[in-house]
Amino acid sequence: MSFWNKRVQEITTEYDRGELNLSQGTIQKTIGYTHPQYTAKLYQKHQDDKGLDLIKDPDFGNPHRLKEYSQSTLRCLDYARYLESFGMRIGEVGSITDFGSGYGNFCRIWKLWNQQILFYNCDLPEMHKIQKHYIENTVDNYEGIEYITHKELNKVKKKNKSLFIAAYSLSECSLDVRAEVEPYLPMYDYILIIHNAKFDGIDNVDYIKDLQKRRLSGYECKHEVDEDSAKWWLICKRK
To answer: Distance between CA atoms of 100 and 195, rounded to whole angstroms?
Structure first.
């Protein structure tokens, strides 16, 4: 059994026992994970951001928060500002695929930024139940929100500029699943992949370098270690 197959079983068992609680059990250790020092670092970095007040975490789901913000929310803002530094404008993005959507928080935030956005939560079917529960209790407008598996990436519709985000997700899939996802990457205008150096015996740094050669020759890319998270970030935009 793979790492995530086992964790998904544990997560769904916990979730089926009652309401969503992001602050306990396997759920807290995975999709609700909070690293206190990293969260504090992100808050300090973005505390004067003009968009911070809009994206405060709601009480629903009981996420760990620092001054009204979860690590997930601060990460989403950090990713957006990083993408902006590479030339993306939030207002031009009309379609997002969030590969490995956690509990659905990125969807909540992007819907605050753009009510008309097409947002695809791409995940295992078992996770869609949790994501839909969270999103339907925190998002006012469900229009344009979809729940798909990696085998349904052909259903993604492009609207204005498109973005593919995979934070600690694509790099934690088997090579077989990655091979099924890769052909769809060139359909996006922007790509952001966050990953650990290694996972389950796979050297992700070498994998991403090879991916750029095989699939992303039509993109301008930057692959580097982010100072705050100490993780590898790949950012790409279509040339």
So the answer is: 12
CA distance 234 to 146: 25
pLDDT of 1 strictly over 60: no
CB neighbours of 19 closer than 8 A, spacing ≥ 6? none
pLDDT bracket for residue 2 (50, 70, 90)? low
Q: Which secondary-structure segment (H or E) carries 225?
A: strand 219-225
Q: Where is 109: in which H helix or E strand?
A: helix 105-113
- Joined together, the tokens standing for residue 97 give 């695929």
**pLDDT digit string, tens, across residues 159-203:** 899 999 999 999 999 999 999 999 999 999 999 999 999 998 999
Q: What is the pTM of this model?
A: 0.95
CATH code, residues 3-238: 3.40.50.150
Phi and psi, residue 47, nearest 5°: -65, -25
